[in-house]
Amino acid sequence: MSPLTRQIFAIARPGLVWAVHFIAIYALISAACAARALIGHPTLLVAGGVVTAICAALCLWSVLAPPSGAELKGAAFWSGLIFALAILANASALFLFQSCGG
Amino acid sequence: MSVTDTPTAYSGARKGEDKSFEGVWDTPPGIRKLSSVSHRVVGRRFIYTGFVFFLIAGVLALMVRTQLIVPGNTFLDLETYNQVFTMHGTLMMFLFAIPILEGFAVYLIPLMLGARDLVFPRLGQFGYYCYLFGGIIVLSSFLFDAAPDSGWFMYVPLTTQAHTPGLSADFWLIGITFAEIASVTAAVELIVAVLCARAPGMSLTKMPIFAWYILITAFMIAIGFPPLIIGSILLEAERLIGLPFFDPMLGGDPLLWQHLFWLFGHPEVYIIFLPAAGMVATMLPTFVGKPLFGYGFAVAAVVSMGFISFGLWAHHMFATGLPILSLSLFSAASTMVAVPTAIQVFCFIATLASGRPKLTTPMLFILGFLSIFVLGGLTGVMLASVPFNWQAHDSYFVVAHLHYVLIGGMVFPLIGAFYYWAPHFTGRMMSERLGRWVFGLMFVGFNTTFLLMHLTGMRGMPRRVATYAEGLGWDRLNMLSSIGSYILAAGIALFVFDFFRSRRHGPPAPRNPWGAGTLEWLYPPVTPGFNFHAIPQVESREPLWDQPRLLDQEAHEVEGVMRGIRDGRRETLGSDPVSGAPLYILRLPHPTWIPMIAAAGLAILFGATLASAYWLCAVGAAIALVAFTLWAWEPSDSGVTRDAGMGHELPVNLVDRRAHMHVALVGTMLVLMALFASLIFGLLYLWNIRPEAAETLTRPALLPAVAAVVLGLAVALFGQFTRRAAVADRFAGATVLSLVTALAALLSVAVLGLSLLPIDPWESALGATLWAIGGFVAFLLIVLAYWALFNAARRVSRRMGPGQSMPDFNLATFAKGVGLMVVVSGAFFIAGAMGGVG
Amino acid sequence: MDSTLGIFGSQDTSNIAGHGAGETLWLTVIMSAAGVAIFLLVMVFIALAWRGRGGGRTWWIVGGGVVFPVVVIGALFVFSTFVLQSVAGPRPPAHVIEVTGKKFWWNVVYDPEGRAIRDANEVVLPLGEPVEIRLKSSDVIHSFWIPSIAGKMDMIPGRVNTLTVTATREGRFRGQCAEFCGLAHPLMAFEAVVIPPEEYEAFLADLEGDARDAVTPQERRGKEVFETSGCIACHRVAGISDARIGPDLTRLGQRAALGAGMWEMNTGNLAGWIADVGDMKPGAEMPSYNQLSGPDLRALVAWLESLT
């Protein structure tokens, strides 16, 4: 893989991680809060916390170790940072409320 | 320039044609111009047609404002008003904003990237006619006195047969879905154009920023439109044959429609905003005289917006009673999208600061964009707050907000873009003096109309009301908003006048009139009808600034690859998606009527569905199928090499993952996967939200479901074997394996059907959704089987020779994608059969 | 379509008479002020940039595009969450009211699981006591919104949404359907009346009983017209009919408005409504009773007005 290809992946990867995280949190909330009530609130918090920690770490990887060598270095760094912040913001939703209903 | 040994057997050569560059690229005259596939012609058609829809929708907006100018007005009755505001939103969102921006992209992208045309010119023509016919279907509803009147958002159950009998909703669903084909085809086409056909040396980092914006937008369309297409098909099926997807009595849910609609609807807003922001990012450096500051930031911001915009859809549903936790998630995502937006705005501001800006008309519109859009963005952040949203939602505050982001974020840059690129369309400059008046009228009119609406909404006026009672504190505000809308309209009218005036009387545009840095200004803007006699090596993002040789010479003398004509064919350079290195010679089609006939066949199919003339549907479908077959039934181009000049000896139409055909197929698979995922979302959603309905569902049959999983794997596997045999030029093996793949696909259809047979789709929403999934996958399997048979037929009839294995190469990728869908569907059916459904 | 609804009270999110509206107004004011300040700040930046100051430095983008928005958005999100918890957090309700949206009016049932006291197009709330409003729909999606009291909540077929409101001021406030629901969507309003809590029980008790007896000969004739002309097929008047298709008329004369909060309740409007409802409210399911003779119509109106 050329350095530039690696850069492009480094820009896109945090976005994909964010997407996975968003889908996971949305799915967890849907599983906990809809009529079917598949999981309980503690499960929601634990699973949400684990997913968030992993995904945020993956994003920060792009921030702390941006691939070197090409002109889009800044883009990979900022993409990692923006998505890491977005992941934390999405997760904060889980931890600000005691139950599905507020 | 020399043509290397042309094998007489080479099937891709055109004989007896004009071999001059101009002759090969000439747009046919007269009525035959309709058969043109040139991106210049098709792009302009998109732009002009889109603008006509804009003017129609604008007149509808003026009717709305005139009705609301005083309380209790009787200018329009309730029914007409509902039709007018529905059509205003529909035309603006579906038939103006997206197509006109795609038109600009279709026109500009090849010119900016150093390509002679889009990579799939016939697809461009096909998309245009789908858009035109779809738009005509939607508009023709006025003639039948059946104009849609349920809002551009078409919420169920208001749009079901019970509450909207007649054809009005069908006109919307069928016409808009038809027109959306154009959006999706243009998206695939633009993804491939940006990735596969750039000037030598134009790596992704040297690409003009506009191309980044368009690339991300195109991906967003590919993923964002499918949920609405699926939603529309499900709703049309509910209306037409009574499948209960959204019926709460049978385990459906009206909110499923809202989820699908806004899964499309929210990204749509960014799909509209991003290309316009890309235009700003292109025009701004020209008038500042310095490159865009923070290119890397801008790229990161556009990529982030592309992703995050898919996580906001439910903020249109804050008042539907979703769990507070969900609201909080969407609220957080909605506020976070402000970060990439702010980065872009500050990139623009920092660019302004880095040079000496000139206050031209396009610059005025950029400043208008910055001020209006920033305000719209700020009210957007306010709306992301759940409690505030509960008050503001569906009030005039939202009307104000959305017009700030859409008119500020899209219409202002668009009018600026017309002033900027007008030389390309007319060969002449538009008036700077009138341009200032246009801007002034539009800016004052816009703010008068919409700034006040924030207050009207906070004073409690709901949206979509045909009339209101006096004395509630809304009278004067509405009067002023209406007056403002007339001023805004005067600005648009003056713009139209200026455009037509300049066509005749504007000063002729010189070469590169604004001193821009991007390649679309390389040739004199008096349009030659073709691009690039030779495609120059590109060394920077602003080649016209940094490579003085480009403008020192006459445009047609500029040095580059691909000079001249090989095999009498239209062609451009196929490049590496990342580095932009020359990879192959990309052969392009010549003018043809076939795509138009295919679109006309589909128009007959859709029109006849509306008229319930089902025999005519079959005729339309047959015409389209024949046209598509003829379209693809052509000699394969690959398998030879040619001299491309500048020391490049390149293959024609590479057989490789990086080839344009394969990238396009991957793009198409993305669309199909998004369609499939939308159906799966619907299934899981209903299963989760209505457990009591899932309990009573008849179970799918287990054994056929297991067989489907196995056959799905077989489809993928035999597809791959076919590719291997074809690439290795094993003629008989590839033919036989094609047939086996087709057989596996047809058997998969059968077992999927057998598995679903116990379920009555009219009995429950969940059952109907399972049938919809099975039907969708079956449709793709039939396409796959037809394609595999088609390839075998082409091979047997010697249309594909040695080294010409691209069709099988693509078939394998398609087979793997469809095979995956069969396996996933089979797995869901197994889960259902084992009791997981209940 | 001339209506005089302005006299029926405020429909303004800043004219607050409820806990939710009050809390939200704070949020609105602070966010608006911050929004205007940020807008002006950005405009100042553009002006500075135009004059070539601070030329194109990365910190503009980092500061203005990342740090500043993250700080402001973070603060806003936390603030908004506190308001959300205060507005929507669980509060034990003192009363329950079930409101069902219909094309194009509101069916109201007080204490639905107990006494099930029926009314229509008017919601009466006790001052200072949390009331759980259960929102349903029997046809299309409507949205229940009293801007002065609380934010809106949709009424969706197949679902029951709840909105807990606490009125903080006595008076009459106008509510309106906020989700487009078809032809007569703009003509689908209602009234919220806030009364002292000590009067609430009396109000409910009064509402629960049968309709007043017809007293005058004209009223008796009116009642007869009501019973013989088909009205009873759709309308409930306690003690006379129990139909549930149209609005409950047991206490019609007590309401201040007619046609789901749209017209002032008076003899002329009521007669006009019965005789030509299609003109006053296109899309209403009630047929126009223009075949009634003048005296019959007057008698019917007189009787309906006596139902207080």
Features of this protein?
heterotrimer, A: 102 residues, mainly alpha, B: two-stranded antiparallel ribbon, two-stranded antiparallel ribbon, globular, disordered N terminus
Short description:
With 102 residues, chain A is mainly alpha-helical.
| pLDDT < 50 runs, ≥5 residues of chain A | none
Biggest interface between protein chains, with counts per chain?
A: B-C, 87 and 92 residues
What is the 3D form of chain A?
elongated
SSE-based structural type of chain B? mainly alpha
- β-strand percent of chain A reads under 5%
Assembly type of the chains comes to heterotrimer
Q: Specify the structural class of chain A.
A: mainly alpha
Count the beta strands of chain B: 4
The largest sheet of chain B has its strands arranged as: 1-2
Output mean pLDDT of chain A: 87
The helix fraction of chain B, in percent, is: 55-70%
Order of helices and strands of chain B: HHHHHHHHHHHHHHHHHEEHHEEHHHHHH
What does this structure look like?
The complex is a heterotrimer of chains A (102), B (838) and C (308). Chain A is built from 3 helices and no strands. Chain A has helices at residues 3-33, 41-64, 73-95. Chain B is mainly α and 838 residues long. Helix content of chain B is 64%, strand content 3%. In chain B, strands 1-2 form a two-stranded antiparallel sheet. The longest helix of chain B is centred in the first third of the chain and has 36 residues, at 78-113. In chain C, a hairpin with a 6-residue loop joins strand 2 and strand 3. The longest helix of chain C has 32 residues, at 19-50. Chain C starts with 18 loop residues before the first helix and ends with a helix. The model of chain C has no long low-confidence stretch (mean pLDDT 92). The interface between B and C is large, with 87 and 92 residues.
